[in-house]
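Lab notebook, bench 4. Still working through the backlog of constructs that have no structural model yet. Next entry is a single chain of 277 residues. Request: give me the structure tokens for it.
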Amino acid sequence: MAPPLLEARELCKRFGARRRLLALPARARGAGVLAVDHLSLALSPGESLALVGESGCGKSTTARLLLGLLAPSAGAVRFDGRPLSALDRAERLAFRRSVQIVFQDPYASLNPRRSIGSAIAEPLALHGICPTRAQRRARVEELLSSVGLAADLYDRLPDELSGGQRRRVGIARALALSPQLLIADEPTVGLDLSVQAQVLSLLAQQSAQRGLGLLVISHDLAAVSHLCERVAVMEHGRIVEEGPLAQVFAAPRHPCTAALLAADPAQLSATLPEAAS
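Model written out:
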């Protein structure tokens, strides 16, 4: 296997103390909330990994740590073998181009006052990829087409689009810088079943065509089974089981994995007959 493109080593994140924490495990109480607890994972170029777990287990916090949007309380995130904290300005810009995210909320992740075209064009301008406005517009229209949207959406505002269209805009924006790794945070949440299938198909198509590495963060096992070869199961900030997706789903070793599989066995059986047999 190729050396890891992105790697987390003994990653921890503790947030400040809050009230009403009695429902959390004892180790999560006290001096704040331990949202991510000595988590280690690695993604090689072109690899697809699902990070799954119940809501509130720390998946989205892990995504933000991997992107450098949050600073870890302990441990390190490494990109191409180097800690993010050690990257100089040029290396950090390269990291930003190489690792992109499709955010969970397609409404909050778009500025309601900016057109769809300007939202997708912004990273192109920031990184100097398309220096002229005409070049940026042509590139944005190409990206819109690649995710199944019409070019005339360029001047539309986010409020004029459906949830599924906004999700596609988020994917187009993430692909604008031709990244090596795409992180998709709950890519199907809040969407109708038919739209979910379209979004999953689009992610699979784009990752295959572009040779993208893919980290899919979700509580929906049937969704990730469409996209990923490997799975890591997360509970209370820790990875409790990891391995090839079909193998883990067919013979789960940890109670958390078994509980997730039991939550919607009919849908998962239809998706992964091998795991259900």
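Notes after review: The first strand starts at residue 6 and ends at 15. The mean pLDDT is 87. Flag for follow-up if needed.
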